[in-house]
Amino acid sequence: MKKSKKESFFWTSYSDLMTSLFFVMLVLFVLVVALLHKKIEEQQGTIEEYETLEKIRESFDNIDSTYFTYNPEYKKHILNIKVHFPKGKYEMQYVDDDTKMRLRNAGMAIKNQIDKITKTYSDTQYLLIIEGQASRDNFAANYELSYQRALELKRFWERSGIDFGKNCEVLIAGSGTGGNMREVHEELNQRFLIHIIPKTGKIDLNKKGE
After folding, report:
1. What CA–CA distances, in Å, run from 37 to 6, 25, 44, 45?
2. N or C end of the chain, less CB within 10 A?
3. Using one digit for the tens of pLDDT, what is the confidence trace for 101-144?
């Protein structure tokens, strides 16, 4: 009789243990499935985001060829307007009126392209980098000069009433006589490179500086 009770107690305890293990395994299985599902959704979202950004980049690649030439190797647009500054000068007052008009039209082309794409992809943010270059000569501050010229172009567009919108942050850069994208004839390196980068996320416009 005692032996039968012990066996009954053993099998009852064993049954309870197996039941508990079953529920533990069930919970772990549900948890793993949920985590995998979340991971798949994240990956799917990343793929869709990448495809969207690629479509936007392709749209910018086709920006008005009257004013821009796209370099696929460096993923930058060359502003194909010859701007000749006197040595050591960066102010727009030294640029002729015809060139100014073309520079303004180029700025409008960027704005119009951003506005056009924003109608389809309203949540996309942009970084617009204006990079100035300088020709190699005996001027001692070509790097500073190239930055000042890029900043002057930004201010010129602002004075012309060109607003790229709240979803676009404008950055200024000067590569001076360095960088990879240079012409053999040095006088042709007095130019601007435009880099338009679409991105997701929010741009803090309070950090914009002059």
Report:
1. 46, 18, 10, 12
2. N
3. 999 999 999 998 888 888 887 778 888 999 988 888 777 888 89
Domain 66-207 CATH superfamily: OmpA-like domain (3.30.1330.60)
Give yes or no for a contact between 192 and 133, defined as CB atoms under 8 angstroms apart: yes
pLDDT tens track for 171-184:
999 988 887 777 77
Give CA 30 to chain center in angstroms: 39
Percent helix, strand and coil across the chain, each to the nearest 5:
55, 15, 30
Instruction: Show Cβ contacts of residue 45 under 8 Å, excluding neighbours closer than 6 positions.
Output: none
C-beta atoms surrounding 113 within 10 Å: 19
